[in-house]
Amino acid sequence: MSIAANVVIALIALMHVWFLILEMFLWTRPSGRRAFGLTAEFAEQSKALAANQGLYNGFLAAGLVWGLYLGSTGFGVKVFFLGCVLVAGIFGGLTASRKILWIQALPAALGLALVLLA
Predict the structure, then answer these.
(1) Do 33 and 71 form a contact (C-beta atoms < 8 A)?
(2) What is the pLDDT of residue 56?
(3) Can you tell me the distance from the alpha carbon of 43 to that of 20, in angstroms, rounded to the nearest whole number?
(4) What is the mean pLDDT of the chain?
(5) N or C: which end of the chain has fewer CB within 10 A?
(6) What are phi and psi of 99, to 5 degrees?
(7) CA 11, 14, 87 angle in degrees (round to 5)?
(8) How much is the pLDDT for 51?
(9) What is the Cα–Cα distance from 11 to 13, expressed in whole angstroms?
(10) What is the 3-state secondary structure (H, E, C) of the chain?
(11) Count of alpha carbons within 13 Å of 44, Cβ hemisphere only?
(12) 11-46: b (≥16 Cβ within 10 Å) or e
């Protein structure tokens, strides 16, 4: 169970690194606009906010990687950062797009369940 938990955590961390890249560096480019369904004008107007959001996603990824690095002693770190991802996913799903529930909240809930069961 521990291996499954760590694999899920690593995948979630990689997803958040990708979110960082999308929001900080690709927001105004066609691939970033397509990913979020944005017009060029809106993307340009909101790029500073998106970069800030991307930075937070980077912190989530860093925290999850830190928990993995700590191994079995990283239990609390893993639970904390998975909880942060879960809350962010639920909030985003309720306020921005339901898709976020499936992309962010569900994997975090699965990872949290696996960590708690391991």
Answers:
(1) no
(2) 96
(3) 15
(4) 96
(5) N
(6) -55, -30
(7) 75
(8) 97
(9) 5
(10) CHHHHHHHHHHHHHHHHHHHHHHHCCCCCHHHHHHHCCCHHHHHHCHHHHHHHHHHHHHHHHHHHHHHHHHHHHHHHHHHHHHHHHHHHHHHHHHCCCHHHHHHHHHHHHHHHHHHHC
(11) 3
(12) ebbebbbebbbbbbebbbeeebbeebebeeeebeee
Residue 33, token pair as written in the block = 């606009």
Residue for token pair 């990689």 = 14
| Token code pair at residue 75 | 């239990």
Please give the structure tokens belonging to residue 44. Answer: 């340009």
Average pLDDT over residues 57-65: 98
* The two structure tokens encoding residue 79: 């639970």
Helix 75-95, helix 2-24: angle, nearest 10: 50
Tokens of 82: 């998975």
